[in-house]
Amino acid sequence: MKKFNLLLFTGTLILLNCCSYPHFYYSPNVQHVPLFDERDVFSGSIAGSVGVVNNCVELQAGYSLPGHVALSTNFMTGGNNHETESYRDFSKLSYFEGSLGFYTSFSETGIFEIYGGYGQGSQHHSFTFSEFSTWYLWDREPDGTADISFSKIFIQPDIGIRSGWVEAAFSCRLSRLNFKEINIYNTVYHLDELNKLKQNSSPWLLEPALTFRGGSESIKGQVQLGFDARLANPDLEMMFETFRLSLGVHFYLSGK
For residues 150 and 178, is the Cβ–Cβ distance under 8 A? Predict the structure, then answer.
């Protein structure tokens, strides 16, 4: 019986994926973890990030000021594209945030930072849906569009080590989203999920991330694993990306 239920569940997922390409309405961005240990330092990175659906390019920049104060900015842009000559199915997203933080070092290699920030993003989705026209053929039809704008406030503590050519850090964001506008145009098959997003428009998220770097003192390769866990709003479970992997290059340039 359990095997039958598992096969039925798997088959249902396959059919649903055939009927409609998935669209996610939130993707965690790369967390900027500069690991400042002195003033007058520029930290930046260029990365590509991938998830289950959305692929993005991301840029981070930060600067350490006197008094253990730091500034940081993040930008993300991307989405997914299944567009062909016959139909248009895609999503485009962009997001920008800025934050103010505090940094300090301890022992010989340990660093602690905490940032608080605010961001804004926008999305455009074009949907399609498929129906059986014969026993072997799927016909894909337009299913409207949606324009979404949202904001995010967050607090992000992180702790890490910098030791020669190696750096590693753990960060964990507490974020609150606010989907300010969800404009829906002529969609039928995606209407239920978009209405659920309207009804649960201000979810709280816990977003842990692991960051690893290696290279020279000023330029290192960077890998970050990011996760997203909703603290409530179970109706959004299949609408947010819960894991993202990013690969990029990190710069650490001291004014000294």
Answer: yes
Tell me how far apart the alpha carbons of residues 103 and 37 are, in angstroms, rounded to a whole number.
Answer: 7
233 versus 43: the higher-pLDDT residue is 43
Half-sphere exposure of 2 (CA within 13 A, CB side): 0
CA atoms within a 13 Å half-sphere pointing along the CA-CB vector of 198: 12
Asked whether residue 159 is assigned to any structural domain, the reply reads yes
Distance from C-alpha of 38 to C-alpha of 115, rounded to nearest angstrom: 16
Residue with tokens 């500034």: 71
**How wide is the angle at C-alpha 152 spanned by C-alphas 26 and 203, nearest 5°?**
65
Q: CA–CA distance from 121 to each of 153, 193, 222, 229 (Å)?
A: 12, 19, 25, 19
Q: Which domain holds residue 90?
A: 23-254
Q: How many domains does the chain have?
A: 1
CA–CA–CA angle 169, 151, 225 (5° rounding) = 25
pLDDT in tens, 108-145: 899 999 999 999 999 999 999 876 544 444 677 889 99
What length does the chain have? 256
Instruction: Flag whether 5 is in a domain.
Output: no
Residues 6+ apart with CB under 8 A from 32: 43, 45, 60, 61, 62, 72, 73, 74, 99, 115
Question: What CA–CA distance (Å, rounded) separates 168 from 163?
Answer: 9
Judge if pTM exceeds 0.85. Answer: yes
R_g of the chain computed on alpha carbons: 21
